[in-house]
Design a protein that fits this description.
This protein has 21 helices and seven strands. By secondary structure, the protein is an alpha/beta fold. Helix 18 packs parallel to helix 19 and helix 19 packs across helix 21.
Length: 398
Amino acid sequence: MMRVVFVDDEENILSGLKRMLRVKRREWDMAFAQSADAALEMMAVEPFHVIVSDMRMPGKDGVALLTEVMEKYPDTIRIALSGHADMEMILESVRATHQYLAKPCDAETLIATIDGARKLQDMLRNEKLKKLVSRMDRLPSLPSLYLEVMSEIREGGSLAKIGKIIAKDVAMTAKVLQLVNSAYFGLRRHIESPAQAATLLGLDVIRSLVLSTKVFSNFEQKNPALDLQALWSHSSKVGSLAKEIAIAEEASGKVRDNALMAGMLHGVGKLVLGAGLPEEYRKVAEVMKEKGLTEAEAEREVLGSNQAEVGAYLLGMWGLPNPIVEAVAYHQRPGAAGGDRFSVLTAVHAADAIVRANGAGDVPPDVDMEYLARLGLESRVAQWTTLWQELNTRKEVA
């Protein structure tokens, strides 16, 4: 049974939560604490899967509580519950919080957020990797792009220009989408564009994220097995091609945007592993070479999981849209995800395989033709490969 602890200094808020969540009493083991210290005492006896905490509390506030939980119980999913006027507090908690909910929060949103977060636990079985991912408060950014963003912000550059720079970087894209898609902002739909996310957040918030909370970090190249420039280049190409494929298949605008972002973020697990487990990730490359294994096979042998699952787990905990999380999780083995029609996953899987093959041949070796046949799309691979060649030609001309 999932164990959830709710923390708020106002007794009437806790009473309201108890009434609102009575429908989950057979599925969740719930506890309610009126202070951070009381919650920590409960967790010392038996850790919880999820903690939902108010931010403004006397004594030890929500930021301090969630930071301590991150350090002591890193596999606990941390959700902040705060009022719309608390942007300052939200920014203070951004490195210790997985998701943000706004007060007042309706039962449907709260239940969906907690259930969704808990389902992610089944995606990643390796406890060591779960703790690593849960501790990730920021991801390494490409140095040139990091410095470019810093320069634009300090010089008072436009949000449009800053958004375009963020859109080029895997780490910065993931973080701004995490924040803007939180229930805290009360948006009726998910935002898939980093440029749009930057506009919604505003210059002051972006400045705070970069200069004060420092959730964007300049990557120091210490692990030769993680080539950040190569990862950025590949991810950018996959995102562009995935969107072109979605356009060719006459997918909706939302699917096209999600395909672009999922393609851009499909390798985010490599950032987590390369930055968090440098020695183990270096060994992955060695095992690939020694045993002739694929990257995913070597990752599973060395780490007990692979970068796709790790990346999806992180993005899911950060509250990114489900189609993006699914595409990241299954882009190497799309048949395992089910489905019987073209989707964001289809676009990203095909784009990744075609880019890896650099457009050589009508059917790249990594394309899952059995999966595409199930969708009735096996004949489309040649056209998608042509799209890649045309995309490259346009870039060369530009």
